[in-house]
Request: fold
Amino acid sequence: MPMLINRLQRLATCGALALLSGCAVLDSHNVIGRMTPPPQTDGPLSASQRSAVVDIVWRTVNERYIDPKLNGVDWVGVRQAYAPKFTEAKDEE
Reply:
């Protein structure tokens, strides 16, 4: 019986290690960890929340897009041009 318990403990440890390493593989760029929590109000997002969303989306595309040259798009220029517009928007339309 103690041998069975020892084997089960080892199996549980191996399973936990496999699960933890799987998380690193599935989210190697920590996209999930960078997500902002949902807003606590039912109203529109605040300027700081919209800015955080723009930052998450921009960094995710910048780090994970399949073409490192982004199909020739000036991605830094896109952020500079559009981030202020999203941050200053009056509503979500």
About this structure: The mean pLDDT is 73.
